[in-house]
Amino acid sequence: MNPRHFTSLLDLSSEEFRRIINRAIALKNNRDADFQPLKGQVLAMIFEKSSTRTRISFEAGMAHFGGSALFLSPRDTQLGRGEPLQDSAKVISSMVDCIMLRTDKHETVTTFAQHSRVPVINGLTDQQHPCQLLADMQTYFEHRGDIKGKTVTWIGDGNNMCHSYIHAAMLLDFNLNLACPAGYYPQQEFVDAAGERVKFFNTASAAAKGSDLCVTDVWASMGQEEEQKQREIAFKDYQINAGIMNNAHNDALFMHCLPAHRGEEVTAEVIDGPQSVVFAEAENRLHAQKALLEFLLCNK
Ligand code: CP
Ligand code: NVA
């Protein structure tokens, strides 16, 4: 039987997404050291890009569940010397129980999944960051209940995080307001798939009006460091600051996947202020991914 993969949020049904969120909350609230459903199992983690949260949360999550995680980078495996992805996927998946990949090209993750006999998890590509959305949605549910029918505002780059927010809007049925500078819109295929759930606004303040959750991300993602200066100019009116938060509902939350650049995409006042839940959001990477691993590996 083909394994279940998690290359995109759209690999889940709406019901499965909600089930993982609720399971993550339960795992967080009732930590039981004797519960080791992945005893003896191994997760291979292939990182072609840097990471703090993703690496630590997967490694700690596997340890909590009685399993272990291997950190692999192209520098010290044959992947970096051009061994074909298909061969690598076949070999690695013959020795471990699950594979997590963080890489540039989304096709690397989908190719791996096609040739792997164990579940493959997308730990971030240039196109999507679905694990982050599990944690973000868990955080929203914990603070405010179900997000169905609410309004979320994305301000900034139409990047991997933005694409996964579009998928979350489709699955969990919320409205997504987008304010992105010209030339930095999300890919059209994502927008088209979401239909009326996604609306574009010309300014950050218009997009934030009546919002329940305001979200942003860095102006230059990993691999775009050389565009930093040009992006600072393009994105200067796309910062989440107190004025923008004032346009949202009084009880609106602020989220950011981190790492953040205070003074660029968000002011210190907002990210370190009372509406910000960024550290709960970061911690929830651990709980949400434990729920994901259990879902994929224990058929739950
Ligand atoms: N948010 C996130 O994925 O963080 P890392 O890059 O530290 O893993
Ligand atoms: N958009 C960012 C997210 C980092 C977690 C990046 O791809 O670098």
Textual characterization of the structure:
The protein has 300 residues and is α/β, with parallel strands linked by helices. The chain has 2 domains: 9-129 and 284-298, Aspartate/ornithine carbamoyltransferase (Rossmann fold); 132-281, Rossmann fold (3-Layer(aba) Sandwich). The chain is built from 12 helices and 9 strands. The protein has helices at 14-29, 53-64, 85-93, 106-115, 130-144, 160-172, 188-194, 204-208, 228-234, 242-247, 268-271, 278-297; strands at residues 42-47, 68-72, 98-102, 120-122, 151-155, 175-179, 198-200, 213-216, 253-256. The protein has a 5-stranded parallel sheet. Strands 2-1-3-4 form a 4-stranded parallel sheet, with helices on both faces. Helix 3 (85-93) crosses helix 4. The structure holds phosphoric acid mono(formamide)ester and norvaline. Residues 51-54, 124, 132, 257-258 line the site of phosphoric acid mono(formamide)ester (CP).
How much strand? 5-15%
The helix-and-strand class reads alpha/beta
Measured distance between first and last alpha carbons: 16 Å
- Classified in CATH, the superfamily of the largest domain is Aspartate/ornithine carbamoyltransferase
Mean pLDDT: 97
Morphology: globular
H/E topology pattern:
HEHEHEHEHEHEHEHEHHEHH
Instruction: Characterize the largest beta sheet: strand count, sense, and whether it forms a barrel.
Output: 5 strands, parallel
Into how many domains do the coordinates divide?
2
| Strands side by side in the biggest sheet | 7-6-5-8-9
CATH C-level category of the largest domain: Alpha Beta
Count of DSSP-assigned helices: 12
In CATH, the topology of the largest domain is named Rossmann fold
Ligand species = phosphoric acid mono(formamide)ester, norvaline
Radius of gyration: 19 Å
CATH-level-2 architecture of the largest domain: 3-Layer(aba) Sandwich
Task: State the share of residues found in helices, binned by percent.
Answer: 40-55%
Question: Tally of extended strands?
Answer: 9
